[in-house]
Design brief:
The protein is mainly beta. It contains three helices and 14 strands. Strands 1, 2, 4, 6, 7, 12 and 14 form a seven-stranded antiparallel β-sheet that branches. The chain has a five-stranded antiparallel β-sheet with strand order 3-13-5-9-8, with helices on one face. It starts with a strand and ends with a strand.
């Protein structure tokens, strides 16, 4: 019997982590419109196993994910399957924004997804060097014919949802992305809920 948790709102430029049991569903909800959420997925049984964009691209044979697609680890195991996608635009090419990235732009002390994920995942024994790849929900990254990438405003609207079902016990870091460039100039909140599958 599925049991839905209350919807939790993440303030702009913040993060958290949740535990999912196999069969649980995580929903990301854009409550304002035009906001990206970074998801970092780790196997709860061994946190050295994590989401791999490279393996996922290998097996899907494309850089865009769709409903019923699996997200794979670097060990080629399915971590989660996408079960709902109201937008159809997400990125798995770019790493989470970091304080070092902002410093290269001359912005020092800027909140970042990497720092927020590091703080949120630390209680689970996941250190900063393990946080290398995220699925960037609602982020619109386009590859030009010459190979350059351009970032466009997130196309998500108020109430749009993205849902994935855990294929094994997981620890998932979630952020309301901290990059103004990614979020069309303004960072906003993002919401999530867990639909727990219980017998």
């Amino acid at each position: 019997m599925p049991v839905s948790s209350p919807t939790t709102l993440l303030a702009p430029k913040t993060g958290t982590a949740v535990q999912l049991r196999r069969g649980d569903t995580l929903a990301i909800i854009d409550t304002v419109g035009g906001q990206v959420a970074d998801l970092a997925l780790f196997s709860a049984a061994d946190v050295l196993e994590s989401f791999s964009p490279g393996r996922t691209i290998d097996y899907l044979e494309r850089i865009k994910v769709r409903v019923d697609d699996a997200l794979y680890s670097q060990r080629s195991n399915e971590l989660a399957v996408i079960t709902r996608d109201d937008v159809g635009v997400h990125d798995m090419l770019l790493a989470p924004c970091s304080q070092a990235m902002f410093a290269k732009r001359g912005e020092f002390g800027h909140p970042s997804c990497h720092a927020n994920l590091t703080a949120s995942l630390a209680p689970f024994g996941i250190g900063p060097h393990a946080i290398v790849a995220t699925l960037n929900v609602f982020m619109d990254v386009r590859v030009d014919p010459d190979g350059r990438i351009t970032i466009h405003p997130p196309p998500s609207r108020v109430g749009d949802r993205f849902e994935l079902r855990a294929q094994r016990d997981l620890i998932v870091g979630i952020t309301a992305c901290s990059s103004e460039l990614t979020n069309a100039g303004q960072c906003k909140p993002i919401a999530y809920e867990v639909l727990a599958q219980r017998n």
